[in-house]
Specification:
Helices cover 62% and strands 3% of the residues. A hairpin with a 2-residue loop joins β2 and β3. The chain is built from 21 helices and three strands. The protein is globular and about 70 Å long. The chain folds into two domains: 120 residues; 333 residues, Neurolysin, domain 3 (Orthogonal Bundle), CATH 1.10.1370. α15 packs antiparallel against α17. The protein has 502 residues and is an all-alpha fold. A three-stranded mixed sheet has the order 1-3-2, with helices on both faces. The mean pLDDT is 97. Bound molecules: zinc ion. Zinc ion binds next to α10 and α11.
Length: 502
Amino acid sequence: MSEARLQELKDRLIEIGSLNSAVAVLGWDQATYMPGGGAEMRGRAMALLEKLSHERFTDAAVGKLLDALEPYAESMPYDHDDAALIRLTRREYERSVKVPASFISQLSEHNSNLYMLWTRARPLNDFASLQPQLEKTLDLSRQLANFFPGYQHIADPLIDFSDEGMKAETVREVFAKLRQELVPIVRAITEQPPADDSCLRLTYPEDQQLAFGLDVIKDYGYDFERGRQDKTHHPFETRLSVGDVRITTRVKENYLADALFSTLHESGHAMYEQGTNPAYDGLPLGSGTSSGVHESQSRTWENIVGRSRAFWEHYYPSLQSVFPDQLGDVSLDTFYRAINKVEPSLIRTDADEVTYNLHVMLRFDFELQLLEGTLAIKDLPEAWHARYQSDLGVRAPDDRDGVLQDVHWFGGIIGGSFQGYTLGNIMSAQFYDAALKAHPEISAEIARGQFGTLHGWLKDSIYQHGSKYTASELLERVTGSGLQTEPLIRYLRAKYGELYSL
Ligand code: ZN
């Protein structure tokens, strides 16, 4: 009995997964190769597919199947695949039925229109033209949250979508604790003469930059038989299926670090998706769990590995041979200091590991204020400048490098988008500690350009499970404890203490 019902549930979910995969292809194309003229129709097509997907998922028949399968799920061990599938589908079903399909398509169409407007407005530094649309985003974000009444903070339901179990209050507490530790480190570093990163700011031809990045992520274990890299405005990773996980980057010929580290970053997201159990493909289990855990993986490969001394002991000679004119006379030491230069700066995605979380915290606070109604969209650009001034001591010359720099609010809801970045950094240090504890040889392997042990451990401990466990369950299983900021602080103190002789 339950076997036939489970099969029917899976068949339905796989169909919905196919619709979602089609949406992902359209979204990938929109952000890479689609000419601007295609925007309107693309917005409509994506909105329709998302609506169809939502309607199918919220079909009463799915609810009935879940009801009927409940006793079966309960009879199974908690970590049995079927039990996990039923549990996760139930959670998403209960959430989805609260949101009308018409709202989903309205939101989707609005998001893709605003995304295209943002790609045009940002280079022109034109926030004013986006203001009415962004006000609509805020309105839609509030509406979405209000489909889930009974929250403590209006951001709670939106945070819960991407970081299940987290609330504004919890995030605030964790951030306050981390901030208290970070600010003195930043101050101690900025009191010293800044590191010289001029070697990164020479001319680096695009093709060679891209080729070098691809070589590294091949060594990492990103599978090009099941992936590819293209160019975009704001780098991202997207999963179309377990056999097709794509990444994107952008290249600045006058700044070596942008494409390289964004490539390492997105490859971390992508290896997570490529490493999920193929049996979960197309099912809700089949992609990475919370956005925090996802980010922990991108930051591991970008920073903990990719900005480590050991890593560059292996790769620097080959980078020098690709760019002999630019780097031939630059020592490894100078280069290592340059890629780890700590400096309060304007752009989050370019920020160093120490100041990065301050960028995230201020966006998180803005999201809360906007949703609460204590900050209006029209006042956002100025509030942005003021907060950068007070938190980081810098002021962008314009909105292009101010409020317009991140794609998020211009292609998705306001709320629940940013906390995952810092939660990810916190978790990356916790997971990495656990990896080293299991395999102390990982550091020596990195210095030889070998990543098999680390990648294998991450795959076994995290990747293969997809969304089977929530972030806190996974942390508990893998590290034996809940969310803790100490490992990140320890990591930053050790690394930057040495770099800046603190
Ligand atoms: Zn990321």
